[in-house]
Specification:
The complex is a heterodimer of chains A (about 700) and B (about 550).
Chain A (H helix, E strand, L loop, with lengths): L1 E9 L3 E8 L5 E7 L5 H13 L5 E10 L1 H7 L6 E6 L5 H4 L24 E4 L2 E2 L5 E3 L3 H14 L4 E5 L8 H13 L4 E4 H4 L5 H31 L6 E4 L5 E3 H6 L7 H16 L5 E6 L4 E7 L2 E2 L1 E2 L2 E3 L11 E3 L3 E2 L2 E3 L5 E5 L5 E7 L18 H7 L17 H16 L3 H26 L8 E5 L3 H12 L3 E4 L6 H7 L3 E12 L5 H18 L12 E10 L6 E5 L1 H6 L2 H16 L8 E12 L25 E5 L6 E8 L8 E3 L2 E4 L4 E4 L3 E5 L5 E5 L11
Parallel strand pairs in A: 1-4, 4-11, 5-6, 5-9, 9-10, 13-23, 23-24, 30-32
Antiparallel strand pairs in A: 1-2, 2-3, 7-8, 11-12, 13-14, 14-15, 14-20, 16-19, 17-18, 21-22, 24-35, 25-28, 26-27, 26-28, 29-30, 31-34, 32-33, 34-35
Chain B lengths: L1 H23 L3 H4 L4 E7 L4 E4 L11 H11 L10 E4 L11 E10 L2 E11 L25 E5 L2 E2 L1 H8 L5 H28 L6 H20 L4 E10 L5 E11 L2 E5 L15 H16 L13 E4 L17 H5 L2 H9 L16 E7 L5 E6 L28 H7 L3 E7 L15 E6 L7 E7 L20 E4 L2 E2 L7 E2 L2 E4 L4 E5 L14 H10 L6 H5 L16
The chains are: A alpha+beta (about 700), B alpha+beta (about 550).
Chain lengths: ~700, ~550
């Protein structure tokens, strides 16, 4: 009888499934094509595939992440939603920020609102900014509006968002009560519950998205639960939230909007896990897939949680062109740089890579699926980094001659360079593009890349990690095994956690601390409910962490400050001011003592310390028998015009033993990725199964020539 | 390829500098309206990169400002640690509120370049009324090019002088600090870049980028058929007098001239444009139409010449008041678009409905001061292939302020904020809708509350292009009565609100594009279902132009 945890991550193209046997520490994984019409099916298929290899498996739990919510918004497959607002404000959803997201482009478009104008109705009621009722809720008007939407317009779900409901939710709560008694079974989302934060557009928008995807998510969870039942595995299953905690499926059923970024969040947790295994403090998580690269800064292995995220962008990489959702989400930066990113010459005749991507279809030219534009993967093939015969562990074959042709026609001529030099240019430009983004992201958070260790994963991550690290002057990289399914692995190591927040802009000197303590007590009860723990007081077994978003009064950018309970309970404003100033100086170099401090959002995180296995990965990497016994297989790979093509040793990941040291240039092939160890780097297999790359002290200039 | 890498690195350097400015700033104009620019230059003053969120117009002017600085302080007197400051409207961006910080960057003892950070400050003294000054002296403190820091040491007297001339000295010093941080960060980046790439100078990179941008713009102009294309719009002044802005855009091969001959003369109100602002708006209009994706460096403006008669409202000379320059300056792009519509109609946009800006100031009964802005947008002009967006700002990139924030910062109650049906100009593509906003001062309020109002397009609508109709004009009422500048409740552009007062502003709609009879039936029905059109529906269906282009908007409720 073995005790097994299973995790799966339903992506746009692939569903990754990972299983972990807690007794033996054995980890297994598989990749299955996603089934968009019945998203649970691929996951279920993967689970049975993995479990059937065991004789008497016993499923301990199932955790998963999915892009279902995001895709429903992008593909507009959600419910028909009716929106009820304070009278006079039904257009808030469509007015947005009254701002163009691209100042140069005269032809911008905005996403269609998820609720068209004729399904948005105002009802008489009003709260003042301080939370006192100004106009009572017109209950008759509300019922009439509900009838119009539900009976005449046949909406499936209702979103209710009144002004200042983050301050006083009573009108929204009463409205929901009426809606539910008038139309039993109707899906009602209210903004004071979904996103109780100041700023009406973002709050309305989030509430609408929640209502929009709730039905789909409910069906999906149902399908999954029934599927697991038929598999005869009576295991509890839980879901990853965008902030990196896992939670009970009932919470997700109520607030599906919170699982929007669950996949990328899981990837970050995998990076945290490897950092812990290898005892690394400050981590730059680098996840490069087919379409995008994602970065997250993990100071002390801690992901930062931010309050807003944008989905369904009209222009994928233009901030402001999408639908904002106010949910707790791991602070990440995503840019259009992946294996499928397209290279071309811009209007200045300079080489540019991305942000547009050839996607999975038609894919890079060398996939031979009709793609004719050169991509990063095409360059990687031409440079000899990626073996055309061993793509996805040999399951796919690539056609290098198509890569050459695409680069020749789109890049070589304009640059007046040969095909290899052009490919080298593509490789360097995409690395530099990512470096630029990562550098700004880190600078904005007061981090110096020099002190960080990069954890590189995703299909294209390990291929580009060294050159990115060089551009950032990062001198150590860790590549996990099975980089391709790292996100699914992150699910297995995630803590059970929820994040809650509450707006209440107040100057530090006028904080009523006993009110705040009461606020936190209320939030703790809500968190305990969401975490599915019963009982009270410390019996909950939940570790609570409080934090607050702070800024100088008059500024518009907040940062998050964690608040020790002692300070909170004592109401020690001076201590808060001290914490604020030291963090402010870290971020911006200087602080201004004269300016008052403002507290904006109170946040609470509740974590149930789970059984996070320290030895999750089977630590069974064999010791090397004879040092230097490693394979003599080589391939010529290009490392800049000074070096030219170099006969480079090629290793299989599985053949590496602990303490094997590889001197760059060298290449290590995994099923889902390839680690390119550039000249100047050396790599060693860690006993916990990750490859650790170190840069020898060299001038930054090396390898930049060409 | 190294150049590509360097360009990308330079962009990252300015992006980091921009992050430093944004996060440390205090003024809403910087953080929310994003009215700023951060740019890096080589030692010879060639543009290297402009930060991403910078206002595009500014990059046409920053090199000009830098040249003025170098005339006064030649390169050989510059020292590491020096920082220069100026806000002269005729040397920088056309009004005192925009203060530019210029920092020479040294590697060891060698001058390698400059960092410049310009930002719109919350207050520079002078009148609170954007347009009410009679000359520039009433508009605030004017800072000629001065050394604010000498070898890292602040010029205390200058700083004291500045801070004692503004209403919010903390914000001024905080924002100046933010600008200097941006220059520090950018300067360090430039030095690091040179070390990493073992460069001895940055001028050759600058020259390369300048040349490439120039050639790209030349070839874009070359594709436009030669000829003279003229266009003009009416514009109301603050006295509701009708002024005219006209331009002739002449294309000769790969060169273009924009000439504003025939434009009305300068006026005794802050809506005048100093030359630099006119130039910046003009060249950017051309760039937006012909080659919007071109990175913004001075080189792309080289093939374009701009002329405006001296003492016209587009080339006002000192000491003309210029604080509210955008009133007039924002008409420049639509005029250039109108001219170019004759030859590249597929690339332009009809005139946008201008919003009514409102600044709220006052004291609560407790004596606590409050201030905020309400910036409701009008409707965007229609495009050749798309409707105008409802309620969005143009050409400025700034956005609105949430109602919940306005109400948290002021005693006002915003009673409604809704689209105004029928306010978009008719056309194959409809102009964007304007909005109506109702502001109420509760009758139990016991303090003092002043609204400074800048009403635009109350008489002259945003006009359509290529057969499209005009948008509806805006409207301003106080307790149901039309409010004009001569009303006794209006003092220097401001209304002292009394408890129980209700002020309603209706922002103008955008102009339409193309003949209304070409509008697709689906679009007409969609407008009707959503209630975007009400009365005008019939005209649309019958393929008629609207009955009266100056039709006034009907305020919702």
């Amino acid at each position: 009888m073995s005790d097994i945890s299973v995790a799966f991550d339903i992506g746009g193209t692939f569903t990754d499934v990972v299983s972990l046997d807690h007794t033996s520490g054995r980890l297994r994984s598989t990749k299955i094509l996603t089934t968009p019409t019945a998203p649970a099916a691929a996951g279920l298929q993967g689970i049975s595939e993995l479990l059937n290899r065991d004789v008497t498996p016993s499923l301990a739990n199932v955790v998963h992440a999915t892009t279902l919510v995001t895709n429903a918004v992008i593909e507009r497959r959600g419910a028909r939603v009716g929106l009820i607002t304070t009278e006079g404000f039904r257009d808030v959803l469509e007015m947005r920020k009254e701002q163009r997201y691209d100042v140069y482009d005269l032809f911008i478009t905005l996403p269609e609102p998820l609720v068209p104008r004729h399904l948005r109705l105002g009802v008489r009621e009003r709260m003042a900014a301080n939370g006192t009722p100004w106009t009572p809720l017109d209950e008759g008007g509300l019922v009439a509006a509900l009838r119009k939407l539900v009976v005449d317009e046949r909406v499936d779900a209702i979103a209710i968002a009144f002004l200042h409901s983050y301050k006083n939710a009573s009108h929204e709560q009463r409205a929901r009560e009426i809606a539910e008694s008038e139309f039993p079974g109707l899906d009602v989302s209210i903004s004071s519950e979904v996103a109780p934060e100041i700023g009406e557009f973002a709050r309305v928008s989030t509430t609408v998205v929640n209502a929009y995807v709730r039905g789909i998510v409910r069906e999906y969870l149902q399908e999954l639960a029934e599927g697991l039942d038929t598999l005869d595995y009576k295991a509890p299953f839980s879901v990853m939230l965008s902030a990196g905690g896992i939670t009970d499926r009932h919470v997700v059923g109520k607030f599906p909007v919170r699982m929007m970024e669950s996949g990328p969040a899981a990837g970050v947790l995998a990076a945290v896990y490897y950092a812990k295994l290898l005892d690394i403090e400050d981590v730059l998580s680098f996840d490069m897939g087919g379409t995008t690269a994602k970065f997250a800064v993990l100071r002390g292995r801690r992901p930062e949680i931010v309050g807003e995220f944008e989905t369904g962008r009209v222009h994928r990489f233009k901030s402001g062109s999408g639908i904002p959702v106010r949910i707790p989400v791991i602070d990440m930066m995503e840019i259009g740089a992946g294996g499928g990113s397209i290279a071309r010459l811009d209007r200045l005749g300079l080489l540019k890579v991305g942000p547009d991507s050839s996607g999975a279809e038609p894919g890079p030219a060398c996939y031979d699926r009709g793609g004719t534009h050169p991509t990063v993967t095409d360059a990687d093939v031409v440079l000899g980094y990626v073996d055309p015969e061993y793509f996805l562990g040999g399951r796919e074959r690539l056609r290098p001659e198509l890569a050459v042709r695409a680069i020749e026609s789109d890049v070589c001529e304009g640059l007046r360079l040969g095909v290899v030099e052009s490919a080298w240019g593509i490789y360097r430009v995409v690395s530099e593009t990512m470096a630029a983004a990562a550098r700004v992201h880190m600078a904005e958070r007061g981090c110096n890349p020099l002190n960080f260790v990069m954890v590189a994963f995703g299909g294209a991550g390990p291929v580009h990690a060294c050159s990115l690290a060089e551009a950032l002057q990062v001198s150590r990289i860790v590549c996990p095994p099975d980089s391709g399914v790292a996100s699914a692995l992150g699910l297995l190591v995630a803590p059970t956690a929820v994040d809650l927040s509450h707006s209440g802009v107040v100057r530090l000197e006028s904080v009523n601390w006993s009110e705040i303590v009461a606020l936190y007590e209320g939030m703790k009860v809500q968190a305990a409910e969401m975490l599915g723990t019963s009982g009270g007081g410390s019996e909950w077994g939940i570790a609570f962490e409080a934090s607050v978003d702070v800024r100088n009064a008059g500024q518009f950018f907040e940062f998050n400050l964690s608040l020790p309970w002692g300070i909170l309970e004592r109401g020690d404003g001076a201590a808060v001011a001290g914490l604020f100033r030291s963090r402010y100086e870290e971020l911006y170099g200087r602080s201004n003592v004269r300016v008052p401090i403002e507290l904006v959002n109170w946040r609470l995180r509740g974590v149930v310390p789970g059984r996070i296995p320290d030895t999750l990965i089977e630590s069974k990497v064999p010791r090397s028998v004879v040092v230097g016994r490693l394979s003599a297989r080589t391939r010529s790979a290009w490392f800049g015009s000074e070096a030219g093509f170099v006969q480079t040793p090629i290793h299989r990941w599985a053949d590496l033993s602990v303490e094997d040291v590889l001197e760059g240039p060298a290449i290590v092939e995994q099923d889902g990725s390839t680690v390119v160890i550039r000249p100047g780097w050396s790599a060693q297999m860690h006993e916990r199964g990750a490859l650790s790359l170190e840069r020898r002290a060299v001038s930054a200039r090396e390898g930049q020539s060409g | 390829v190294t150049l590509e890498i360097m360009r990308s690195r330079l962009e990252a350097i300015t992006a980091e500098a921009e992050a430093a400015l944004l996060k440390a700033s205090f003024s809403v104009m910087i953080s929310q309206a994003q009215d700023f620019s951060v740019e890096a230059f080589s030692a010879q003053g060639l543009g290297l990169a402009q930060s991403r969120r910078s206002v595009s117009e500014f990059s046409a002017i920053m090199p000009v400002t830098l040249r003025h600085v170098l005339e006064k302080f030649p390169r050989d007197v510059l020292q590491p640690g020096d920082v220069f400051i100026t806000n002269d409207p005729w040397q920088c961006l056309g009004h005192l509120g925009d203060i530019t910080i210029i920092a020479p960057v040294f590697a060891e003892r060698l001058l390698i370049g400059f960092m410049m950070a310009l930002a719109h400050h919350a207050d520079v003294g002078g009148t609170l009324d954007d347009t009410g000054a009679r000359d520039v002296f009433e508009e605030g403190i004017r800072i000629p090019i001065q050394r604010l820091y000498e070898r890292g040491k602040v010029n205390e007297s200058l700083m004291e002088m500045l801070l004692s001339n503004v209403r919010t000295p903390d914000k001024l010093s905080g924002d100046l600090n933010a600008q200097m941080s941006a220059c520090d960060v950018g300067g360090r980046g430039l030095v690091g870049l040179m070390q990493e790439f073992q460069l001895t100078e940055l001028d050759s990179v600058g020259r390369f980028l300048f040349g490439r941008a120039q050639r790209a713009m030349e070839s874009a102009i070359g594709e436009v058929p030669d000829g003279d294309y003229s266009f003009g719009v009416d514009m109301e002044s603050t006295d509701e007098e009708i002024l005219r802005i006209t331009a002739v855009v002449s294309v000769h091969g790969e060169h273009m001239v924009v000439d504003f001959e025939g434009t009305s003369g300068q006026v005794l109100s802050g809506i005048n444009c100093a030359w630099n602002f006119t130039y910046a708006e003009s060249v950017n209009a051309v760039r937006s139409v012909l080659i919007p994706e071109l990175p913004c460096t001075e080189g792309c403006f080289e093939p374009i010449q701009v002329k405006a008669p001296a003492r016209s409202i587009l080339n006002a000379l000192p000491p003309a008041p210029v604080k509210g320059r955008s009133w007039t300056g924002f008409q420049i792009q639509p005029v250039v678009f109108g001219a170019l519509a004759q030859v590249v109609p597929e690339k332009v946009q009809a005139h946008t409905g201008m919003g009514i800006l409102i600044a709220v100031n006052g004291l609560y009964a407790s004596g606590q001061r409050f201030n905020s802005h309400i910036l409701p947008a009008g409707g965007l002009g229609a495009r050749p292939s798309l409707d105008g967006i409802n309620t969005v700002n143009f050409p400025t990139s700034s956005g609105g302020i949430p109602v919940e924030i306005v109400e948290s910062q002021t005693p006002l109650l915003v009673e409604s904020k809704e689209f105004v049906a029928d306010s978009g100009g008719l056309g194959r593509h409809r102009g964007g809708l304007g909005q109506s906003v109702s502001l109420y001062l509760p009758d139990d309020f016991r303090g003092n509350c002043t609204l400074s109002i800048r009403p635009q397009m109350l008489k002259v609508p945003a006009i359509g292009l290529c057969g499209g109709g005009s948008g509806a004009v805006g409207r301003l009422t106080l307790n149901g009565n039309r409010l004009t500048r001569s009303d006794q409740r209006v003092q220097r552009g401001s209304v002292q609100m009394r408890p129980g007062d209700r002020l309603v502003t209706v922002q103008a709609g955008g102009g339409g594009f193309g003949p209304p009879e070409e509008r697709l039936q689906e679009a007409i029905s969609a407008d009707a279902i959503g209630g975007y059109t009400e009365q005008r529906l019939e005209c649309q269906q019958n393929g008629l132009s609207e009955p009266d282009p100056h039709i006034e908007a009907v305020a919702a409720r």
